Fold this sequence. Notes:
With 543 residues, this protein is an alpha/beta fold. Strands 3-2-1-4-5-10-9-6-7-8 form a ten-stranded mixed beta sheet, with helices on both faces. A two-stranded parallel ribbon has the order 11-12. The protein is 53% helix and 12% strand. It has 22 helices and 16 strands. Helix 4 runs parallel beside helix 5 and helix 21 (497-513) packs across helix 22 (521-535). Among the domains are: 21-67 and 75-174, Rossmann fold (3-Layer(aba) Sandwich); 422-474, Helicase, Ruva Protein, domain 3 (Orthogonal Bundle), CATH 1.10.8; 483-535, Orthogonal Bundle (Helicase, Ruva Protein, domain 3), CATH 1.10.8.550. The longest helix has 36 residues, at 76-111. The chain has helices at 30-42, 55-65, 76-111, 125-134, 158-166, 194-210, 224-233, 238-244, 246-278, 292-303, 325-333, 348-356, 361-368, 372-389, 396-406, 413-418, 427-434, 439-455, 463-466, 486-492, 497-513, 521-535; strands at 21-25, 46-50, 116-119, 140-144, 170-174, 186-189, 214-220, 284-289, 307-311, 337-341, 358-359, 393-394, 424-425, 460-461, 483-484, 518-519. The protein is globular.
Amino acid sequence: MAVNLAIDVGYEGAAPVGLARILVALDQSDYANNAMRHAVRLTTGNVTGIHAYAAKLHDRRFKQMEGGLPERYQRESEMEHQREVHEDLIGMGLGLISDSYHNAAEEVAQKAGVPFNRLSPEGKNYSCLIEAMNKGDHDVLFMGALGLGAVAGSTIGTVCERVVRRANMDVFVAKDRRLEIGDGPIVVGMDGSPKSFGALLTAIDIGKKLDVPVHVVAAYDPFYHYVAFNKISTVLDEEAGKVFRFKEQEQLHEELIDDGIAKIYQAHLNVAETVAKDAGVDVVCALVAGKPYQAIKKYIEEHKASLLVIGKTGVHADDGLDIGGNTENLLRMVPCHVWIGIAEHFPPSDVVAEETIMWSEEASEMIMRAPEFVRGIARTGVIRQAQKEGHTFITTRFVSEVMSKMMPGGGGGDAVAQTFERLEWAKDARAMLEKIADESVRENIGLRAEKSARRDATDTVEIAHIEPFMAEAALEPAGAKITWRSASLARLQRVPEAFRDQVKSAIENFARDRGLSVVDGKIEDEAFAASRMAMCPVEPGKE
């Protein structure tokens, strides 16, 4: 079967997502059954069940195994009999199994008074799901995170992962076999992107239908840049530092991240609150600090959320991105159900700003001189302040005034000089840090703890500064510890220190994906080759 598995990055759905035509992936697993129950709770129209059976695949595999059957099957008459039995299974049995899955789902729909339709395509399950979505006959897909092949320790099944990456519509993933939406609040991940506002409207719609409160959470990481600049400082010589204007760059990031980005994300929450009120709903808003997916996960666990609604990609996505890193991590890690949204919404205030606010050439040039990493944040901050004060024309003076408010404190040289002075550590805090076996993780968490201490304006790192980050040291699954051969570890040391941790993590993940626990020269070579292929794929005919 020829199936187009291309990601439709040009899709622009309107939020909230329609719930009149829900497609549900069936396999009679507890997760899929829970997805079905939620589909009939939420639909405003009909539900279509889909189950694919790979008859051709089974037929090919049986033929491949014929030569390895026990001796008693090797007689021609017995082999012909077994072929007939297997053909009956392929011709009728798989179809009967698929019908039984549909019958069970239809019974759930009938009890809820919901019309039920059936799809039973032949082929690979994930490709059949993608093909069904591409036809445009459905609004949203409901599926289980795991299927019948789930084993202890599984978080996301391969079918779910493949489908979510390629989906051109919103996808609801049942992460728990029994959890009901409403057993806890609905949480929305907000980063100011159109998809995050689309997720908000969808969450509000679901909350209204099921009478469930909605929480909106914005997460920002004020610690990352401190770690990054400390790393960069170890590889830049004095001349390179002057060309890069390193101290000025660091100071700009220090002030903007510490003060400006928090204000911007708070502004996103303010807009979200306004959007919710316009929809007749009061929402709970929360600004949390830390690595975004970890901070949101912690919030979900503390508030015992039943559903997370989040955009498939975020504010920093490019056109070719299939799924955002925070979304992917949250899909794997949170205990509640996850709704991954592709529908977009543009709050009226932002639309008006784009249409009515003009920039002088000098003001535009001033914004463009900001580091690319923070340029969008700075521009949004200026626009929001202009709207608040009623300006329709932005000048360099106005940009400077807004930036000074976003970055209080100015650019004193003393602050720059203090940047890389390592802080003192309390003995109990140091002892806690030393318990982390992985050197790279230990260093990263140590720097984050120092940054936390600086934010508290103290010269000593205390227990309270390191405790919030200790959970990161336990993120590696049990039994997944990777051992490095000495020659491979020596080779890793030749990677510039600024990128060494990323390379090390990538190689270890490559090894884990292949079920390996030891990194040697061969695995390193394969990992590097895979990375090169991902960045520079070979065109057909040019191998």
